[in-house]
Write a structure and sequence with these properties.
- By secondary structure, this protein is an alpha/beta fold.
- It contains 13 helices and eight strands.
- The chain has a four-stranded parallel β-sheet, with helices on both faces. Strands 4-5-3-6 form a four-stranded antiparallel β-sheet.
- The longest helix has 21 residues.
- The termini are close together.
Length: 310
Amino acid sequence: MKFAFVFPGQGSQSVGMMEPYGDAPVVRATFDEASAALGQDLWALAAEGPAEAQAQTVNTQPLMLAAGVAVYRLWRQRGGPEPTAVAGHSLGEYAALVAAGVLQLTDAVPLVRLRAQAMQDAVPAGEGAMAAIIGLDGAGVEAVCAEAAQGEVVEAVNFNGPGQTVIAGHAAAVKRAADACKARGAKRAVMLAVSAPFHCSLMRPVGEKLRARLESLALGTPRVPVIHNFDVKPRSDPQRIKDAMVQQTFSPVRWIETIEAFAAMGMTHVYECGPGRVLAGLTKRISGSLQGGALEDAASLDQALAEVAA
């Protein structure tokens, strides 16, 4: 059986998010390691919140990174084999890189804190926005964005599933594009409660800050292929991986193509490794041949272990 792991990003956090996994020591140890590297108690943030603190980008990114790695380590401790390949949605790509042995958790946690702060700083509060466009194909959304820009930035930045695309950019341009998408036939255009317009070209300064920090880090060669968000390709050379991490900050997340790539690699199952099941749902919508599951609690982890052992 060939299976892939995918790691969730921002939006899958919740108060008490690790309780469904029981009291496995490896989960707590992972959070302790991440907390020491960051100088912040991430376990208390996961267990107690509050939700408002969890939702702050500078907290969400290290929190979700620790959660994804903790569930992966629990899987491995329970005897689960390494996946054939891995990927992560946006921030989740960092958990995938840790799982593949490219990044050490102690390096990754401060790195995503820097990434998050740079994202907050790149666009003044209120000047950027994001919206989810439901019921219009990605090419149609891209065409609308080109027309609605009018000298500002508005771009399709998350190709999440059939008829589900997220746009980002200057607030006024995003609003124009959202309205135009509805006029073009979209079922819904939902403004998202986010602190910055992620993955659009306004995030280029983030990439430069990230590049400067990455130059001081030693990356390993991946044990398993990591399919990168921005071009849906794996890399083995550490410098090329660094380049892909920089590009990812201001490039679209091509999630539909990522799942299709797994199918082309001969995967039968894709498991979401971490809290929630957003990505598992997208897998089922994108591919008719792949089984999409989620390691969202102890019971589903046991079920997945049984499936890969069969």
